[in-house]
Amino acid sequence: MYQLCISKGGLSMEIKINVTTDQHTKLAALANRSNMSMEDYIIFKLFGNKDDVSILVEKTLQKINTLSSGQKFNNKLLWNLDWNGINRGTKLSLGKRIFKISKDSNSGFTATKKDSQNTQWYIKD
Predict the structure, then answer these.
(1) Are 35 and 20 in contact, with CB atoms under 8 Å apart?
(2) Domains and CATH numbers, the chain
(3) Does the reported pTM lie above 0.70?
(4) Cβ neighbours of residue 103 under 8 Å, at least 6 residues apart?
(5) What CA–CA distance (Å, rounded) separates 109 from 125?
(6) Which H or E run contains 120?
(7) What is the bridge-based pairing of β-strands 15-19 and 72-73?
(8) Quick check: 57 and 90 in contact, CB under 8 A?
């Protein structure tokens, strides 16, 4: 049995549920296909609204799709001036999710290296 702990920042409550290994595996796969964490996926399925990061991931993937093959980019370049309006925690979560997606061979882009400022760079396939 796995115990899933759902807790969002702020003044939210924590919920724990027990699931079997099979249920955990299926949930992880469904969340992964939706480019969401398991926590965000469950909340989305229950309440039908996506968090800010999920929306930003979708928009980022749309921006990546407009790039030319071989073009190098990072999240900050994609978002240009809008990047300054995104809070640090959201930027970090977005970065983690985009990096995870880049590891999928069907993503259409690949993580390359981090620069001296620890910014992750990618290249469009």
Answers:
(1) no
(2) 2-47 (no CATH), 52-124 (1.10.10)
(3) no
(4) 111
(5) 5
(6) strand 120-124
(7) unpaired
(8) no
